[in-house]
Design brief:
Aminopeptidase, single chain, 2 domains, alpha/beta, Alpha-Beta Plaits, 381 residues, four-stranded antiparallel sheet
């Protein structure tokens, strides 16, 4: 099974329907594991749930220095309600673009990570070697990475992390944290013709949502991450038209910065929303930050042809990645988000990725792996 053509591999990965929910990442994980095994990688799988696997692949590891970790995720978001112009699991190529659900977010990135890593080992083993971590269940809030980290799995050490999420091959050294919450209210159900005898949970939720719309974090500007944001994304309540609802709930997605802790945010929200509702924490992940002067970051800039003094880069991203889990797991090592996908195409109908960006990413990843070994050797000696 040879997939040295990164576009052919991208199309193959797109053919797996890994829409989350339910994800069903098992087949794509086993396919990828077999491919990497045939190229000399040691393969392990971590089970998230039935038919859901995270893949860990390693090659060239030694006691000399820690490996570089390259990571991405198998799952994608749903197709959406609008019809697609192209079948979303075919990998149709048109106008120098490859179309499909996950083309930008992030199966093109996975393909480039795989091919770039294989190519890096063509002549000699890069010092320290490489560990690939391809997760299940990233889209709802890095659930696969969280499960892996909490399982006691021996993740070893790392010298640095590359997250292959869509950045149009422009490296970013940070992204915001995430605090996902479920806000719920209880009431008393009665016949809707006698609402005075009941207690309408939807009204309680509606009052809370109105407060969220006008909520102010009162946070200072973070020079790297900007200001925190808040969004109500999902609402649910009631059982039928002619009953007073006894339960209602909605979700909040907060993207945070280091200027305001999640505990402080929760405290302020609790005071603002009052006792009519209860707050349940769903996801609690910190922001990712790396120092721009880090030798690894500077090397990545050089490989990508980026001069940070000219402002040709995205320093921080608004979206969440598995880097929020893995940077903590590996003790705060330099973490860069870098992938061929177009950030603006993520989660869109008719999602696509530019062919040239995918091919370019292969060389970028290969050169980062090779040059990281040189940096690590210098630092150790």
């Amino acid at each position: 099974m040879i997939y040295e053509d990164v576009i052919l591999l991208t199309r193959k990965l797109l053919s797996f329907n890994t829409v989350n929910p339910e994800g069903n990442e098992q087949d794509i994980a086993i396919f990828t594991g077999n491919l990497l095994s045939e190229n000399g990688f040691a393969i392990n799988y971590h089970k998230l749930a039935e038919n859901r696997l995270t893949l860990i692949a390693e090659k060239g590891l030694s006691g000399v220095c820690p490996p570089i970790v390259l990571t991405g995720h198998f799952d994608t978001v749903p197709l959406g309600t609008k019809p697609w112009n192209e079948y979303p699991f075919s990998g149709t190529i048109k106008d120098s673009k490859i179309f499909g659900r996950g083309s930008s977010d992030m199966k093109a990135g996975l393909a480039a990570l795989i091919v770039g890593t294989i190519q890096a080992f063509k002549k000699n083993n890069p010092p320290g070697g490489v560990r690939l971590i391809f997760t299940a269940g990233e889209e709802p809030g890095c659930l696969g990475a969280i499960h892996l980290a909490a399982s006691g799995y021996d993740s070893g050490k790392a010298s640095a992390i590359i997250v292959g999420e869509p950045t149009s091959n422009i490296p970013a050294i940070a992204h915001k944290g995430a605090l996902y919450l479920r806000i719920s209210a209880s009431g008393k159900a009665v016949h809707s013709s006698m609402p005075e005898l009941g207690d309408n949970a939807i009204y309680k939720v509606a009052r809370a949502i109105s407060k969220i719309e006008n909520f102010h974090f009162q946070a200072d500007l973070d020079e790297l991450h900007g200001f925190p944001t808040i969004n109500v994304g999902l609402i649910n309540g009631g059982n039928n038209l002619n009953s007073v609802p006894d339960h209602a709930e909605f979700t909040i997605d907060i993207r945070s910065t280091p200027k305001l802790s999640h505990s402080e945010i929760l405290k302020r929200l609790s005071l603002e929303l009052g006792k009519e509702v209860s707050i349940e924490k769903l996801v609690d992940l910190p922001a990712v930050s790396s120092t721009e002067t880090s030798p690894f970051v500077q090397m990545v800039y050089a490989v990508c042809g980026i001069d940070p003094k000219k402002g040709m880069l995205r320093k921080s991203l608004p979206y969440l990645t598995d880097g929020a889990v893995l940077q903590q797991l590996y003790g705060g090592v330099p973490t860069v988000i870098l992938g061929p996908g177009e950030p603006e195409m993520a989660h869109q109908t008719n999602e696509f990725c530019f062919i040239t960006k995918i091919v370019e990413a292969v060389n970028i990843y290969k050169n980062i792996i090779l040059k990281n070994g040189e940096i690590t050797n210098v630092e150790i000696s």
